[in-house]
Design a protein that fits this description.
Elements lengths: L1 H32 L27 H8 L3 E8 L2 E9 L5 E11 L4 H13 L16 H7 L4 H5 L3 E7 L2 E9 L5 E3 L5 E4 L4 H14 L2
Antiparallel strand pairs: 1-2, 1-4, 2-3, 4-5, 5-6, 5-7
Length: about 210
């Protein structure tokens, strides 16, 4: 009777070990498949989609990029020989707004200095800011830095360049259309690698400023 009890207990323990080994094996394809182009669905065995169940789903590279790379934005204005740089962040309502203080440097600075300033401003962009109490207040740091009373006054003679960073950095010049504001030139965009050094970024910005009008 005692021997039978020992055998039953041993059989039970072996069964538990085998079940755990099978669950662990089921996680291996998904934990290593992300780099091969598959969607990771979690490490909890109860949440895994294995070949024995629904199977692995291959998703396009563009979709994977959106899942893993956050978008950042900034904007640069050139006016009266100075550059005004603002971070752009996404509110919890899904709208983009100018965010934080305004960085001001001379337009005659070396490309590396301008590029470094832009990269610093761009790095502060995020997608979790609260909507402003008043949308007019987002322009206040810029207007104060420029020493003007209104947006209408600031845009006179100003140029604008929009910068977006994701898989790559896109730098887009714009057209100053007065009361309509700055309209991006859709067919005129410079693209540089996301890991470009500050000199490369600065030179691309200078080109975009020249093309803006």
């Amino acid at each position: 009777m005692i021997l039978w009890r020992y055998l039953a207990a041993a059989t039970f323990l072996v069964g538990r070990v085998l079940l755990r080994l099978r669950a662990a094996e089921a996680t291996v394809p998904l934990l290593s498949a992300y780099d091969g182009g598959f969607k990771r669905t979690g490490t909890n065995p109860s949440n895994l989609r294995t070949a024995a169940g629904a199977g692995l789903r291959r998703i396009p590279r563009s979709h994977r990029a959106r899942d893993t790379i956050s978008m950042k934005k900034s904007v640069l204005y050139e006016r009266d020989g100075r550059l005004f740089l603002r971070t752009r962040s996404k509110t919890t309502d899904g709208l983009w707004m100018d965010d934080g203080p305004c960085t001001v440097i001379s337009a005659s600075e070396q490309p590396g200095t301008i590029g470094a300033a832009l990269l610093e401003v761009l790095s502060k962009s995020n997608d979790r800011v609260a909507p402003p109490k008043s949308w007019d207040e987002q322009s206040r740091p810029l207007l104060d830095a420029a020493g003007v009373a209104s947006w209408a006054e600031f845009r006179k003679g100003a140029k604008c360049v929009a910068v977006t960073s994701g898989e790559e950095i896109q730098i887009r010049p714009s057209l100053n259309e007065g009361e309509r504001g700055f309209v991006p030139l859709k067919d005129d965009v410079s693209t540089i690698p996301v890991d470009s050094d500050r000199e490369t970024v600065g030179r691309a910005l200078a080109t975009a400023i020249e093309r803006s009008r």
